[in-house]
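Bumping my old thread because nobody answered last time. Still need a sequence for this structure:
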């Protein structure tokens, strides 16, 4: 659902999303492509360097990068190093997007994945753009996490 929020916020589909190379990442990749976005495959546990290089190239081409910040293994609400490296090396702003359903089914998984129930209302939260230039890695991760948790579900 965040893909819809992104298009409403930016008014374009000019985004490449970093999605894991694991099998479940293929489902998300197909959805993103169907929606009109690009896909960069890789994660902190597999293909990370390749994904970072592809993200840097995409930014050079004036594309946005979509990242699920906690990586494929969590823990939930953690921030991976890749988010910090991309934002700092390219001096680009970060925008946090969250969605909260009025009712949903929750999976008993580490990330508490949810599926909105039919007719549920979805509330989208989009932060103001912010930079993490000049922060050390741990301070940057903590700052991003605080922004993400403001509207976490």
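Sorry it took so long. Here it is:
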């Amino acid at each position: 659902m965040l893909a819809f929020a992104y298009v409403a916020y930016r008014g374009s589909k000019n985004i490449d999303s970093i999605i894991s190379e694991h099998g479940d990442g293929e489902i998300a990749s197909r959805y993103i492509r169907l929606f009109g976005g690009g896909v960069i495959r890789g994660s902190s546990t597999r293909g990370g360097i390749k994904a970072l290089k592809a993200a840097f190239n995409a930014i050079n081409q004036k594309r946005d990068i979509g990242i699920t910040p906690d990586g494929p293994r969590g823990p939930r609400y953690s921030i991976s190093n890749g988010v910090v490296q991309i934002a700092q090396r390219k001096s680009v702003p970060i925008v946090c997007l969250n969605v909260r359903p009025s009712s949903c089914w929750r999976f008993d998984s580490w990330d508490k994945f949810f599926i909105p129930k039919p007719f549920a209302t979805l509330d989208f939260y989009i932060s103001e753009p912010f930079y993490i230039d000049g922060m050390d890695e741990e301070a940057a991760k903590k700052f991003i996490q605080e922004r993400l948790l403001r509207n976490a579900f």
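The first strand starts at residue 15 and ends at 19. Let me know if any region looks off to you.
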